[in-house]
Amino acid sequence: MDCPGITDKCCPHSCGASCRSPRGLISNPDLPRIPENVTITEKLEKNATHETLDAFGSWSVGGSEKGLVFLVEARHHLGCNFSERKLGPWTLVRREIRPRVNLMRVMTYGRWYQIRVAAVNENGTKGYSLPSNHFQLSFEPMGPEAPTGITIHSVAMVNGSVWAELRWKAPNSSLPITRYRISLGHVLGSSSESRSADVSFIRDFFVPKDQHIFFLRDLTVPKEFMVQVQAYSKYCEKRLTGLTGDLRFFIERGADDELLWFADTGEMLSPKKLLSLEESLSKPKVDRNRFRWKEGELRAHVRWTWSRKQSNLTFEIIWRQVGLGPRSTFAATTDKTYYEIGSLRFNSKYNVTLKTQSYMKLHSTFTVFKTPSCEDLSKSNEELDCKLIKDLNFSKNLDK
């Protein structure tokens, strides 16, 4: 039997077992007081380009904080209305030495949260506080991102008709995915100077949330097709539509009546020779020695490789701080295989996504990196004086 309290113990007796608290625990002067007034609040910061949302937990201990470590536990449930009975188990999320914690890294949009705190010193603890107020981030969750890894795995004749096996990977989503929509269309025409194309969509299919393989049946050959894959999620009674991932492919018959299809570079492929399209674009890399402070902001040098020869290719680079959601997102485009990203915060994690559209396929990859502390960067940058940085966009992320 597991007891819910950090200090409770399961004690057997003649009627079974029960959880009991140690005697004299609360009155013990060598143990820190149980934290009180545990609350969760949020703070919204705006500037000319984006909004940043932060959520904080705070509490009081009614005495000296010296030598104390605070254990912060959280529990949550998904939904638009709070229900205590739906809350999951308590989970340790942070250890702090001050009576304040930034909770954005452990929170997700569309969920209700509570926290509780225990103060611990060298002698032990009196246990956890009462739960905080229930709290939900004020930004509503967005729909799923675009599915990745969209590819035609194989093409074959089945019962006299042409079938193509479509595969994809589940996208990132703050809410559970409810289903996928697959749209199939004929490409009517496209420009050699542009990735745009006129498409006549002829069929829509809906598949379950756990399905990532679908057979496109009764295809007409020779023909160029466009297939789109889109995920849906749901928040309260509102259906959230995700971003669309797409793939263009062409099917025709070879000299021996063998089915062939075009891939990323326009090379003819058969089921015996399937080109890996996922290896064309490398993950972006952030050079640890290429962080710098310039024009009042922290910048990082990002580079990548593209393994195929293709001219007039444009890369889109998107970066955002982990845990802050879509409203803290920055984006840029370049025809180079490197870029210097800016508006970064010290000592913070970032997600960098890299995208490009080749002949017929959208390629996407990402990486996660952490920026240095202000003090570490100032050792190699004489222009950087951490004590003079007053901008709230940076000062709250400095190591203390």
Q: Element order, helices and strands?
A: EEEEEEEEEEEEEEEEEEEEEEEEEEHH
Q: How much beta, percentage-wise?
A: over 45%
Strand order of the largest sheet: 13-12-15-16-17-18
What does the average pLDDT come to?
81
Largest sheet: 6 strands, antiparallel
State the low-pLDDT regions, or none.
Answer: 190-196, 263-279, 391-400
Outline: globular
Coarse structural class: mainly beta
| Tally of helical segments | 2
Q: How many β-strand stretches?
A: 26
- Taking the alpha carbons of the first and last residues, their distance comes to 41 Å
Instruction: From the alpha carbons, calculate the radius of gyration and give it in angstroms.
Output: 27 Å
- The percent range for helix content is under 10%
